[in-house]
Inverse folding.
């Protein structure tokens, strides 16, 4: 008897419930085995980089929220740090602490959404409901700070949008308590869950050498045991003040990445606790007339502040001719902003180094020769957000 | 670290190095396009430097700026050394007419998508790339959106609302 | 003495329109697909805290063939537009569309080459929900408004409408 080997082409997406948005993957299958996977992206291409280049530095900020919409504050932070580097602005101490606190809350928020949707992909519906319950408490902090649930744009160039709300402390402490309990619950539900382990252990494996070859970052890279976290490697915004650890994986599989993300949430809680306990006093915005907007209270009563306010809003500020790159450790990996000033009040180029885009490029490698059902797990474990992949 | 790299480049690729600059503590080396792959390979293999991580590839368009005299397009390679925790940039300038450069996919698989994106949005061609096709924009879109002469608000494909009345070009 | 009193208790009088609309309104099956940031708020709306199940529409259908409400949650890019149109055409009649968020309604903050300036250029929209992203309460309000709209529809109009488009 002769067998004829024939492959089937299967199209997944762009509308597919488990691909986290509008990702399309064209699979070449030999029975259940994946011969080749080709991700097709661009279904959410928004032209964000071009839009930002057409705006004043201040006005480009809200577009950053809409890239990785699961972690808006990290994007704000990255962009603001890059512009601050370009303009050589010194930031008040308190602002740094608040930013770290918010960035870590954002990391938890993003990982929560990840844990919920990833478990949902693998068939654990209830995880989504639990994770989103905890996520709501973080959204409450967002809302108290900025008035918006998701697109906060709270971190601004030179500081924050406004003074912290009075009950900030209380809200954040509530988050710490609730999320700590939540993580315990997830551990009980998933970590030793037979089905979950079978679906994720030794699935979507990538070795350390390959991970570097594909320029991966974030939990994808650390899952393979490479110790690279921008917070430790090149500290920014005062991360050097805080005490935390970087969890590393061994096998580079989906299960390790899951453990890493859970541990990262715990470490984030530690950092948040430190920021809340030791928050210094000070202004919420740098005092730099002509570059940083004066506080709103002053604008209403002081002539000078009003003039500066008016000038910045209408004309912006002129940036020097030079390019800066600022990387931060976003929940998904190394998020970088390359901003090229050209002597005018608009950037010549704003380039975002999108961690999920670059991580997604490794998908063909992750699923090659694996079973079809592993593809869903692999996509989930990369933790992509299409808004950032396509921009 | 920058001294080491400078020394290294000067000793092995002295005539490839055009200039260097340091802006806000970030070191960039401007090199001749034809030496790119050799330089990257050498940086990667060097036992001391060990530049093994390609962080990003991006491109700029200097149309209408005084910088245009050195070549309209600039491709920026963002390299990182994990051992030394050090980041620096390699920049090359390309002419307005048919910008082409060698692909880095032979050294890093990760360069594949980054180069495709640059090709798609800026129209720079990479020689030796295994699959240089559009990645983000729809197939029917003509032109390269990130170039400065591409209007921001121009809708090209089927649902166009402004094809009779082209909008002014927003820089 | 009116006619009403002559009719036995076990009989309810109504028009066919009303009855059908009542049934349709109470079991609307949304088509679960998200495009961008608004989709996250849509998930929040369905999740524990806001719990859309209270209004009888928690049955998310992953296939357009089984759904009758399309919530366009997020910006529609030029590349995605033909896909959205195809999905809409695959839904069986009767079908309704909610355009959720500023982007889906009018392009939002992205007035550029890549984004469709309003999903109503390619499919008919019944309810627009403003906001960037709309709060879950807003989306719920939109859905309740849609229910009110469905209540007032008439089968005759619908039939004529479909007859034209067929
Ligand atoms: S309206 Fe706002 S939140 Fe919704 S898709 Fe558009 S940018 Fe995102």
């Amino acid at each position: 008897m002769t067998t004829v080997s024939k492959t089937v082409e299967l199209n997944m997406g762009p509308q597919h419930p488990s691909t986290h948005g509008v990702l399309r993957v064209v699979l070449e299958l030999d029975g259940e085995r994946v011969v080749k996977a080709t991700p097709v992206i661009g279904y959410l291409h928004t032209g964000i980089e071009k839009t930002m280049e057409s705006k004043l530095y201040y006005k480009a900020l809200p577009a950053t929220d809409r890239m990785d919409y699961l972690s808006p504050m990290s994007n704000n932070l990255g962009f603001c740090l890059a512009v601050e580097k370009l303009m050589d602005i010194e930031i008040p101490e308190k602002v740094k602490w608040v930013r770290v606190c918010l960035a870590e809350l954002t990391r938890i928020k993003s990982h929560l959404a990840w844990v919920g949707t990833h478990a949902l992909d693998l068939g654990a519906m209830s995880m989504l409901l639990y994770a989103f319950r905890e996520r709501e408490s973080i959204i409450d902090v967002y809302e108290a700070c900025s008035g918006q649930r998701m697109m906060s744009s709270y971190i601004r160039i030179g500081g924050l949008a406004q003074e912290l709300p009075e009950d900030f402390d209380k809200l954040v402490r509530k988050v710490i308590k609730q999320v700590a309990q939540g993580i315990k619950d997830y551990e009980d539900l998933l970590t030793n869950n037979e089905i979950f382990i079978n679906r994720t252990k030794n699935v979507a494996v990538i070795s350390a050498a390959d991970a570097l070859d594909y320029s991966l970052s974030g939990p994808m890279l650390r899952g393979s045991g490479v110790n690279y976290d921008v917070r430790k490697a090149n500290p920014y915004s005062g991360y050097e003040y805080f005490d935390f650890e970087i969890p590393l994986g061994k096998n580079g599989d989906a299960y390790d990445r899951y453990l890493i993300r859970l541990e990262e949430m715990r470490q984030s809680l530690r950092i948040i606790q430190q920021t809340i306990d030791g928050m210094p006093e000070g202004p919420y915005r740098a005092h730099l007339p002509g570059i940083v907007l004066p506080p709103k209270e002053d604008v209403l009563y002081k002539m000078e502040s009003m003039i500066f306010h008016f000038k910045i809003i209408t004309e912006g500020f002129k940036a020097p001719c030079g390019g800066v790159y600022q990387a931060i450790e976003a929940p998904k990996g190394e998020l970088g902003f390359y901003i090229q000033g050209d002597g005018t009040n608009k950037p010549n180029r704003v380039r975002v180094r999108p961690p999920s885009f670059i991580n997604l490029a490794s998908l063909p490698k992750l699923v090659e020769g694996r079973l079809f059902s592993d593809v869903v797990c692999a996509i989930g474990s990369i933790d992509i957000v299409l808004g950032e992949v396509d921009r | 670290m920058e001294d080491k790299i400078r020394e290294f480049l000067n000793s092995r690729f002295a005539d490839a190095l055009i200039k260097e600059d340091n802006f806000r503590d970030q070191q960039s080396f401007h090199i001749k396009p034809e030496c790119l792959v050799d330089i990257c390979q050498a940086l990667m293999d060097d036992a001391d430097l060990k530049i093994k991580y390609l962080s990003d590839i991006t491109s700029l368009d200097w149309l209408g700026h005084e910088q245009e005299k050195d070549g309209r397009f600039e491709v920026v390679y963002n390299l990182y050394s994990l051992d030394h925790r050090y980041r620096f940039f390699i920049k090359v300038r390309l002419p307005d007419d048919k910008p082409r450069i060698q692909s880095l996919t032979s050294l890093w698989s990760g360069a594949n998508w980054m180069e495709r994106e640059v090709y798609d949005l800026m129209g720079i061609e990479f020689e030796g790339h295994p699959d240089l096709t559009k990645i983000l924009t729809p197939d029917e879109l003509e032109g390269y959106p990130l170039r400065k002469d591409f209007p921001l608000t121009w809708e090209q494909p089927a649902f166009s609302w402004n094809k009779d009345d082209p909008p002014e070009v927003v820089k | 003495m009116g006619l009403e009193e002559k009719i036995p208790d076990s009989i309810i009088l109504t028009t066919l329109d009303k009855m059908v609309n009542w049934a349709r309104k109470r079991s609307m099956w949304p088509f679960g697909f998200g495009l961008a940031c608004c989709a996250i708020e849509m998930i929040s709306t369905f999740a524990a805290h806001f719990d859309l199940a209270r209004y009888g529409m928690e049955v998310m259908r992953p296939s357009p063939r089984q759904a009758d409400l399309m919530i366009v949650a997020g910006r529609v890019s030029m590349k995605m537009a033909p896909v959205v149109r195809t999905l809409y055409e695959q839904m069986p009649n009767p079908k309704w569309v909610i355009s959720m968020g500023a982007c889906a309604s009018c392009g939002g903050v992205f007035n550029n080459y890549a984004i469709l300036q309003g999903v109503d250029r390619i499919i008919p929209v019944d309810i627009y929900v403003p906001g960037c992203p709309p709060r879950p309460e807003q989306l719920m309000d939109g859905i309740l408004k849609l229910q009110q709209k469905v209540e007032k529809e008439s089968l005759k109009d619908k039939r004529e409408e479909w007859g034209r488009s067929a």
Summary: Chain C touches chain B through 13 residues (CB under 8 Å). The pocket of iron/sulfur cluster is lined by residues A 66, 151; C 36-38, 74-75, 101-103, 108, 132-133 (CB under 6 Å). Chain C has a mean pLDDT of 84.
